[in-house]
């Protein structure tokens, strides 16, 4: 099926390319330089020649004559530092060196030529333009200077958290980790659950752009944010890097001193056993100006014992990866580039924690291969076309940690302490692949204003298979050491293929010299199939976008922006795979009355799953209003309001089960009925017809999430030895659907069990989202200290309001067995805020005889050694009534030193 779908993708891409030969394309990852050439009187110079050169520009210098209105344009540019030269008969030549162009940036650079009286060249010194006055989008760019110098976790997916308004992998109210991650245009998120399951070495990345607010029609498949990483390329000179990072066990402090002595014995600080990263890479020319290459290799081992775990063993992760990327200029008008990457990750003791001892963990094996092929063809001065084919294959097997096996022993869950024992609660096998073909074409039209019209198409075909089972087909549930219930379930295995066709049209329409409109629309046709059932999932989406950018003073220093748009989620094929009933058996829950004495409480139907034929695709409607001002010294200040409304969630409901209202008592904070802290009677629901559940994947009623934020951002680009980005975001995130891990694909709010399947889980559903950081402040920056030969100081500071939570309780007395009830709405309680500073000291020393520079780095994380529950984790504390109520599940890492050495040439 994938092959036939992919053939249709190639035909569709070729058809668009042939029909639109008068148009051109610019990828969302490329940059542009545009402007106007005038003389001293302000008159346009229509016969000037503008030339750009850069080390990152394969094929040599590019030239552009000015048009009748004096404008010039360079598009499809890689990021880098450019030298811009302007010449015209009768005028003195002008040169603007050191123009810094970030990935995805549109730089407006106007020139004024003086009448020639002498033959020397006028050299313009000064900072590059900082504010994009032609775009309504508000991306966050993390350039090479920041990536190389900041103390970060060295994860591409984690870098998204450096952007203002994004914390804990939650972007502007979207679900945790539900963000789109792309590397050189290839989507790196897994089709089954849309988590960032693929890896790439941090050192291979040149820049990262985080796009969410005001994103034009070429962006889609996310309701959080889209982070695209631009890989490094070779150049006309050979360059290389070798690097080693390590943290020794003794370099980790302890930060649990504020806990009681009893809790300190129970909840120790994190411990390191073996922690290092090593990598090497090389780039350079195979043929000068025509064929470059970049290659790299990484091996990393991260072996530790997480906070709160006091038993034997550790979590041991070992990763290997390599990459090769060629870049070729076949002709001055045709450029080819691409890459192939392969890696393998092995994790022993995954999920090790205070609630998952070593015997209950999983051992994971995850090989992956990704690739990309990309062609850019300049048809004329106004026309460029491109095509791309990329994808990946991935396997993820998560098995019981030996000596446990698939068959024994049975896993056990203690409700009073929320801890597992004996075996993993499940084992999981997953195979997935993604193939994507795209073509995009634009045309620059100087009539009815100036248009940069862009049209594109894409076809994506995915395949995913998953298998999940209980070891021995059973899970036991204990209460204070006594087995009270057991679930018998031989598991589930399902597979699904999906296809997505999309077409988008986006215009950047300069109505006047100071006003630019950005109308666009994105159309998608989604479908999914399972073995023996074609197109069980079908949705069609229309995503309109409209932006306005107003160059307030006409000097390219102040812009007022407004943007409204609709953004749709990706396809979650795990939900579609549930329609594959070929290997699905019922789950039966029993009450344990005594040895070998069980009473059936609940039985699921084996043919109970259906997908609503009128299912509407989940989306978010977004409004952004803001203003950005560039002031002296390469500093910009930005203020904006963000409004996001998440609606039409895709989730599961149960149309077959019938529940009758009843009342049961809250057992209180100790979780035991009949004690002095028992709570009030609760309005709950008894299941009256077990075994008749009918699960439907649809749009549950009253499923919504509202996000509002006000944001202030200040930026200082690197100059005069320092750079800085500071931000403050006030936000509110509230609804009946939260933002925990992959809310549209996983269990919790929209899954099974979930708030819209079981009415008991919908009690007190309206409240704050788990990740609702009312106040978030960030500051990232670097400074080169001009003493002792010079050294670099950099840091990342973050303040974030603690996680929202509320008490839950396991309530007995239900006909269908014990139920977990939300006693308090989410947000009734708050964890302490995270107030954390990470600092790096870096000293570099040139070795001229070897044409090499050595760098020595020391990173200190959590320099104040703050000790609080880690609000970045899924469940930072135990919210369940019982003896461990309020006890942390996750703890902020203590002060830690990381040392690195790097050699570059």
Q: Tell me the number of helical segments per DSSP (H or I, 4 or more residues long).
A: 5
The major beta sheet can be summarized as: 22 strands, antiparallel, barrel
Q: Overall 3D geometry? A: globular
Detail the poorly predicted runs: 1-27
Radius of gyration: 29 Å
Whole-Å distance between the termini? 48 Å
Sum this structure up briefly.
This protein has 5 helices and 55 strands. The chain is mainly beta and 905 residues long. The relative contact order is 0.11.
Task: Give structural notes.
Helices cover 4% and strands 52% of the residues. It has 905 residues and is mostly beta strands. It has two domains: 31-102 and 105-134, Immunoglobulin-like, CATH 2.60.40.1120; 142-347 and 366-850 and 857-904, Maltoporin, Chain A (Beta Barrel). The strands form ten sheets. It has a 22-stranded antiparallel beta barrel. Strands 25-24-28-29-35-36 form a six-stranded mixed sheet, with no helix packed on it. Strand 2 and strand 3 (62-65) form a beta hairpin.
Write the layout of secondary structure elements.
Blueprint lengths: L1 H18 L11 E9 L9 E5 L8 E4 L5 E7 L2 E8 L6 E8 L4 E3 L2 E3 L8 E2 L16 E3 L1 H6 L6 H4 L6 E2 L2 E2 L8 E4 L2 E2 L17 E7 L14 E6 L7 E8 L14 H6 L4 E17 L3 E15 L9 E17 L2 E17 L11 E19 L2 E18 L11 E3 L4 E3 L5 E20 L3 E20 L4 E6 L2 E7 L3 E19 L4 E16 L2 E19 L6 E11 L4 H5 L5 E2 L3 E7 L2 E7 L5 E3 L7 E13 L3 E13 L3 E4 L4 E7 L15 E7 L7 E4 L6 E15 L2 E14 L31 E2 L6 E11 L5 E10 L3 E2 L2 E4 L7 E4 L6 E2 L3 E14 L4 E10 L34 E9 L1
